[in-house]
Design goal:
Layout (H helix, E strand, L loop, with lengths): L1 H4 L5 E4 L7 E5 L5 E8 L2 E7 L2 H10 L3 E3 L8 E5 L6 H15 L9
Antiparallel strand pairs: 1-2, 2-3, 3-4, 4-6, 5-6
Length: 109
């Protein structure tokens, strides 16, 4: 999944916490759009989502839970146990990337 995240335009991999947690960031604003971490024995992937979509995904997949150490309204954690289809995880990555991308500069008249 990290390799897929790196196919997003301008993305890069970072390890800001020194504990093996991989943060995938935008090159323009350096915001995180995907966070790969371990919680106990579980491998998690934190992704931003629109609030309504976040709830739908949590209801559809038991392995999609409120974001671990993140805002529970806007972030989901995917337990990477193979129960969420890979295509769905890729769509979630795409959505997170879009929601966190750099905004255009404001122009003043």
């Amino acid at each position: 999944m990290i390799a897929y995240c790196l196919t997003q335009a301008g993305s890069y991999e970072d390890y800001p916490f020194g504990d093996g947690t991989a943060a995938l960031r935008h090159g323009g604003n350096h915001r995180i759009f995907a966070l790969f971490l371990k919680h106990g024995e579980q491998e998690l992937l934190n992704l931003k989502s629109a609030p309504f979509t976040a709830l739908l995904l949590r209801n559809e997949f038991p392995s999609v839970i409120p974001g671990y150490h993140m805002n529970k309204v806007h972030w989901n954690s995917v337990i990477l146990d193979g129960t969420v289809p890979e295509d769905t995880v890729r769509e979630m990555i795409d959505d997170s990337y879009t929601l966190t991308r750099p905004k255009g500069r404001k122009r003043f008249a």
